[in-house]
Amino acid sequence: MYQLHSPKGWDVWVRIMAFSVEFLRKDATSVPEARNPTVRRRELGALLRALRNEKGLTVEQVAERLLCSPSKVSRMETGHGVATLRDVRDLCELYGVTDEAERNRMTRLAREGKQQGWWQGYDLPYSTYVGLEAEAVSIKVYDSAVVPGLLQTADYAWALHEASLPKHDDSVIGQWVEARATRQRILTRPAPPSMHVVLDEAVLHRVVGSSRVMRAQLARVVDAMALPNVAIQVIPYASGAHPALDSVFTILEFLRPAPDVIYVEGLVGYIYLEHSRDVQRYKDVFDRLSTMALTPRKSAELLRKTIMQHQD
Question: Between 180 and 7, where is the model more confident?
């Protein structure tokens, strides 16, 4: 078997992971179906959007015929709004969907889209993202400031929340840290997603919490590199300028027909991009970042060296 930390092994890992994502997409029946309300709403929305486009109708025209607002139609198609069974029935009539199996499928998606995900009990400001993350078959993350949530220790996550504005009560922070720990289980569950992380070297040096917290956090990152579905790379300072210096983003890839999503988080809020042009642009940038970064083996060496530098 190829070793992930060798140059040849790394190249093979990248190709295997890319093949695995495409294989799962073509053979969706090989993956147990999860009743994820966020993804079910998006899957239904993608079907509704495709049907509307086939009929050559605008969002405004559909809204006029359904006697509702254009924003409601738009939200149903993006998965940000919940389509009722009556909405599905009316839209099937409007779009001429007569196949009983297809109508039943859309009705099932509408029912599942109204269910509650485990994360909705935590009142997370990014709950939509957690729902998407839970069903992604591939997660690619670039961050220039902090360790991604799926790799954070509880102390590191707590320190990040304490530094945020506006301030939150300890009880709220405790719930969010607990939710983050629950999210992390997807990396070790049966049929886990592949995860490829590229970090700027600044992430390793920025002291979040304390030196003790940083040592434990970087050690957690090194431990995660041992998982067969996880690859982590670091872009060293010596690499100079790169195409994502002013950005952080996550690429979530799904089984078809759910479209891939680019997630961007910052002070402006939580942004989701689904247009194929936007998605491809971010994928190209991520590929470039991965090429500029150290191999996983050399990244692990840099991480271990930096751990030793974080002294109290």
Answer: 180
pLDDT digits (tens, 9 = 90+) for 209-218: 999 999 999 9
DSSP 176-216: HHHHHHHHGGGGTSSSPPEEEEEEETHHHHS-SS-HHHHHH
| DSSP per-residue letters across 232-289 | EEEE-GGG---TTTT--EEEEE-STTSPPEEEEEETTEEEEE--HHHHHHHHHHHHHH
Final residue before a domain boundary, out of 113, 144, 159: 113
| Whole-number pLDDT of residue 256 | 75
143: enclosing H helix or E strand:
strand 138-143
Using an 8 Å Cβ cutoff, are 31 and 24 in contact?
yes
Rg (CA), the chain: 21
pLDDT of 137 strictly over 50 = yes
Q: How many structural domains comprise the chain?
A: 2
The reply to whether the predicted model has a pTM over 0.85 is no
What's the token pair of residue 310? 């974080």
**Contact 151/197 with Cβ under 8 angstroms?**
yes
pLDDT of 197 > 90? The answer is yes
Q: How many C-beta atoms lie closer than 10 Å to residue 209's C-beta?
A: 18
Closest CA to 134 of 14, 216, 226, 31: 31
| Residue 58: CATH number of its domain | 1.10.260.40
Domain that holds residue 255: 7-30+122-309
> Where residue 134 sits, what CATH number does that domain have?
3.30.870
**Which residue has 């140059």 as its token pair?**
7
Q: Is 276 exposed, middle or buried (0-12, 13-18, 19+ CB in 10 A)?
A: exposed
Query: Which residues make Cβ contacts (< 8 Å) with residue 241, sequence separation at least 6?
Result: none
User: Are 15 and 98 in the same domain?
Assistant: no
**In degrees rounded to 5, what are phi and psi of residue 284?**
-65, -40
